[in-house]
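$ ./design --mode recover --in tokens.txt
reading tokens...
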């Protein structure tokens, strides 16, 4: 009988005797063959075939990037699956136990509970450092796994290398180092220390720095003896073909990932500094991840306020050592700005800064013809975002209720996505806010149209209740307004009716378009609303583009 190696001594006895599921595909080499072994349909190629059960090509590529032999790598459906495989391979329910730190990633406990394995958390020191002596004191014959997340979630700090080394040298079981956020840290990965520590397991993921959370790919690196045991336990086709394909594609663009990480680190530090200066914010804890803990007054109320503002963060205030803390991920630059404004507005109370409608900025991340205009003057600060190929999403805030109501008609009836946010000198009057909003909207539409290849160019008339509105629009590039609408009232809502024509003139200038506007009716509210709806329908028709059309709708050959 052969002597058991370190991993086999730790493993559950039934795993040592386990005959894993195997397929004939694992015994075949090459990509071409007549596959009649797996009861697959011969139709709907290439999706009719099961994915490579051993992920040979992907593991080879991962090994090249990480400078690790392929037999030291196992892949999973996210790191959560590799965590679960470790528990099922090495821990006997009701006998063995798992140690981890607190606070930390919640799935360590969940996997332990699912598998009926005792879970023992060890409280971090008050400065979030590792309580090395306490951890080792809790070890023993039945302590099979120690989970350490570094940088840690939710505290954001990395653990001292000498502390991790001490645990590796003295803990009786496997030390599982979860490096989900390691790409944001100054320290090198512990993957390069596998030769020095046969009890080391390193977990990594494509979900964070690689920006591929949707494809669910986790990676575990360990001694080949550990990997062989895990291979017995993993499901045969646990990583689907789409995930393997997308991961291989991403790994061919690793430089872009590094640039994204560098950008997030810079903005993380700037965001923490901005938030630290807001009254009501006690502390932004140092972080080497793409998130940080923010300690605030009244975290529960702030959390609810942010939800109402469309911002989702994590309330960690009930976690040990995290009293008063929210965990905040770094977003896009616009999202970060909105977060600052939303938190500042919460603590400044009524009359505080309103901020920008955050969710709408995500529209610019969606595919389509996008335009963004920011217009700053001594009188106004206007930001407008538009996606001509959107789905009628909107977030409008100008400070003028009736203008908001009118502008909301544009995305609703054009199908475009539209964000409008204005901080204007309304204490003077409405003129600058209305004018600059229209100019910025026009500029955003002009930018989104690009070279205008393939657009329809023209549009539209609309009846509404007692009113008939005619809006003819031409995105041909020559700004002009013909206005044939009169109003008997001085104001509709909080808008002077004299400003309606000026709004459309300013939009025409910004969008470089020709507008002919005519409206008749008895109800002034209905009349102007009909005009805005007709404008929206005109836009809908004019920006429509035939797929693949590359021509300009002009006999001049230019717009």
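writing sequence...
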């Amino acid at each position: 009988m052969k002597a058991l190696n370190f991993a086999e001594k730790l493993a559950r006895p039934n795993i040592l005797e386990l005959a894993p599921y195997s397929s004939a595909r694992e015994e075949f080499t090459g990509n071409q063959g007549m596959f009649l072994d797996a009861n697959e349909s011969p139709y709907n190629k290439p999706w009719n075939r099961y994915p490579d059960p051993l992920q040979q090509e992907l593991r080879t590529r991962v090994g090249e990037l990480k400078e690790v032999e392929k037999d030291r790598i196992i892949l999973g459906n996210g790191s959560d699956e590799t965590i679960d495989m470790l528990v099922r391979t090495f821990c006997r329910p009701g006998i063995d136990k798992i140690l981890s730190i607190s606070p930390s990633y919640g799935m360590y406990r969940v996997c332990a509970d699912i598998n009926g394995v005792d879970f023992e958390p060890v409280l971090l020191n008050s400065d979030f450092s590792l309580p090395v002596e306490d951890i080792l004191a809790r070890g023993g014959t039945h302590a099979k796994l120690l989970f350490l997340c570094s940088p840690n979630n939710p505290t954001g700090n990395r653990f001292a290398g000498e502390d991790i080394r001490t645990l590796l040298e003295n803990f009786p079981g496997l030390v599982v180092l979860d490096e989900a956020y390691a790409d944001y840290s100054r320290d090198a990965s512990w993957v390069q220390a596998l030769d020095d520590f046969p009890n080391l397991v390193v977990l990594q993921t494509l979900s964070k720095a690689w920006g591929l959370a949707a494809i669910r790919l986790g990676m575990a690196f360990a001694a080949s003896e550990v990997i062989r045991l895990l291979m017995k336990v993993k499901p045969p086709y646990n990583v689907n073909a789409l995930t393997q394909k997308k991961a291989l594609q991403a790994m061919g663009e690793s430089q872009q990932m590094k640039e994204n990480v560098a950008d997030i680190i810079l903005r993380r530090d700037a965001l923490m500094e901005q938030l630290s200066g807001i009254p009501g914010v006690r502390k932004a804890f140092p972080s080497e991840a793409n998130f940080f803990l923010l300690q605030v007054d009244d975290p529960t109320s702030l959390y609810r306020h942010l939800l109402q503002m469309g911002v989702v963060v994590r309330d960690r205030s009930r976690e040990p050592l995290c009293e008063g803390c929210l965990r905040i991920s770094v977003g896009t630059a616009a999202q970060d700005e909105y977060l600052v404004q939303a938190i500042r507005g919460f603590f400044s109370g009524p009359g505080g800064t309103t901020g920008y409608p955050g969710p709408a900025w995500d529209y610019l991340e969606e595919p389509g013809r996008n335009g963004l205009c920011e217009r700053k003057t001594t009188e106004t600060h206007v930001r407008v975002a538009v996606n001509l190929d959107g789905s009628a999403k909107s977030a409008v805030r100008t400070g003028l209720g009736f203008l908001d109501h009118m502008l909301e008609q544009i995305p609703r009836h054009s199908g475009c996505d539209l964000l409008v946010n204005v901080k204007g000198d309304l204490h003077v009057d409405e003129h600058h806010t209305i004018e600059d909003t229209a100019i910025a909207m026009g500029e955003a539409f002009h930018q989104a149209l690009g070279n205008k290849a393939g657009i329809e160019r023209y549009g539209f008339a609309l009846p509404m209740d007692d009113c008939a509105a005619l809006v003819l629009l031409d995105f041909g590039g020559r700004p002009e307004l013909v206005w044939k609408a009169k109003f008997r009232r001085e104001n509709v809502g909080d808008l002077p009716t004299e400003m309606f024509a000026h709004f459309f003139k300013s939009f025409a200038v910004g969008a470089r378009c020709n507008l002919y506007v005519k409206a008749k009716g008895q109800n002034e509210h209905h009349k102007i609303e009909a005009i805005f709806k007709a404008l929206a329908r005109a836009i809908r028709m004019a920006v429509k583009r035939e797929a693949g059309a590359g021509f300009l709708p002009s006999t001049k050959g230019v717009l």
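exit 0
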